[in-house]
Design a protein that fits this description.
The chain has ten helices and 20 strands. By secondary structure, the chain is of the alpha+beta class. Among the domains are: 37 residues; 81 residues, Beta Barrel (Thrombin, subunit H), CATH 2.40.10; 94 residues, PDZ domain (Pdz3 Domain, Roll). The protein is elongated, with a radius of gyration of 32 Å. The protein starts with a helix and ends in an 8-residue tail after the last strand.
């Protein structure tokens, strides 16, 4: 039996060798005499080496959005930190001779950004470029281009840059609106710790996060997609690869991701982008009041039915609110007929009002409700940190 098996194996080996020689040297002979099944195998097209994406893969979304996410390298001239004893003649030799550069040195930083238009506009975080005097953009394909700042909005931590080139650039697609729901899959794309472009996946953990003390205007998307230093200004995209937010901050005790990251929604990004591109700045309404939450205890002391509204804790002198007759202790319950739920909603509603126009503010004062016409002013621009 063993001898028969050896004879069979040798015959198969010789037959395969003959088939290989004929198919290589005389393929025509083989096709003329071979069965149809063998010819079909020989003429079958070769694969391209790129298997179809596995079920549940988000590679299409990543490939669609990754080219438009860039690395941002910034540099600035800052004061050179000197040791207190460096200028003492007795101890100077311990520090060596250092060149006199006017007490300054180059400092570098990095972050991420997203190309949002074919003519080279890039959205990133304000804190990425806030103190930079030189900005370089590294594209996903390896190109490095200079850029300059068009405008910034510290109160939402957004900034708009313009790449200095006429070359064609990849562009990300902005989502149509804030249509995310808790549980939706999202991808975070950026340059964490400068290691290179990285994609992480997670879900939308919460929406409308505020009162975090990060910025003046807060309405964050919370996600557990890993966001680390260097991801700031990068893209948060949905499962179709469209931009739903700009990654901006993380909650961390160690500096690394703990699964709690925050992104600015695309609706805020679009509004800030359009204003900066059009005018170079963001204009918001302002009335000049200090506000605070209404606790159950405050509601009881003011005789209010519930905690809805915003308590006027202070009124700035010569402000639009003072001129209109708003007083500390008033409770703002409506703006232009729209109910005020809480101080954050009031801040957003006032910011959306056009400066120079009048708006009706309804306040509770004692046991009465008053309608006061306020001529909205322009919100002061925060001072630059330089």
């Amino acid at each position: 039996m063993r001898r028969l098996w050896l004879i069979f194996a040798q015959a198969v080996t010789i037959s395969l060798a003959a088939l290989f020689v004929l198919s290589t040297l005389k393929p025509g002979w083989l096709r003329e005499s071979a069965p149809a099944a063998v010819v079909a195998i020989l003429e079958a097209p070769a694969g391209n080496g790129s298997p179809a994406p596995a079920a549940g893969s988000y590679s299409a979304a990543a490939q669609r959005s990754m080219p438009a996410v860039v690395h941002i390298f910034t540099s600035m001239t800052g004061a050179s930190p000197n040791h207190p004893l460096q200028d003492d003649p007795v101890f100077r030799h311990f520090f060596g001779e250092r060149p006199d550069n006017g007490g300054s040195q180059r400092q570098a930083g990095l972050g991420s950004g997203v190309i949002v238009s074919p003519d080279g506009y890039v959205v990133t975080n304000n804190h990425v470029i806030e103190i930079a005097d030189q900005i370089e953009i590294a594209l996903n394909d390896g190109r490095k281009l200079s850029a300059h700042m068009i405008g910034r909005d510290p109160e939402t931590d957004l900034a708009v840059l313009k790449i200095d080139t006429d070359a064609q650039l990849p562009v990300i697609t902005l989502a149509g609106g804030d249509a995310l729901t808790v549980g939706d899959v999202v991808l975070a794309i950026g340059n964490p710790f400068g290691v290179g472009q990285t994609v992480t996946m997670g879900i939308v953990s919460a929406l409308g996060r505020s009162q975090l003390g990060i910025n003046t205007f807060e309405n964050y998307i919370q996600t557990d997609a890993a966001i680390n230093p260097g991801n700031s200004g990068g893209a948060l995209v949905d499962s179709a690869g469209t931009l739903v937010g700009i990654n901006t901050a993380i909650y961390s005790r160690s500096g690394g991701s703990l699964g709690i990251g925050f992104a600015i929604p695309v609706s805020i990004v679009r509004n800030v982008l359009e204003q900066i591109v059009s005018t170079g700045e963001v204009t918001r309404g302002w009335v000049g009041v200090e506000i605070q939450d209404i606790t159950p205890e405050l509601a009881q002391s003011f005789g209010l039915r519930d905690t809805r509204g915003a308590l006027i804790a202070g009124v700035l002198r010569a402000s639009p609110a003072e001129r209109a007759g708003i007083l500390p202790g008033d409770v703002l319950i409506a703006v232009k007929g729209e109910p005020v739920r809480d101080p954050r909603a009031m801040l957003d509603m006032v910011a959306a009002l056009p400066p120079g126009h009048k708006a009706e503010f309804r306040v509770v004062r004692g046991e009465s409700e008053l309608d006061l016409n306020v001529e909205v002013g322009r919100r002061p621009t925060p001072a630059a940190k330089r």
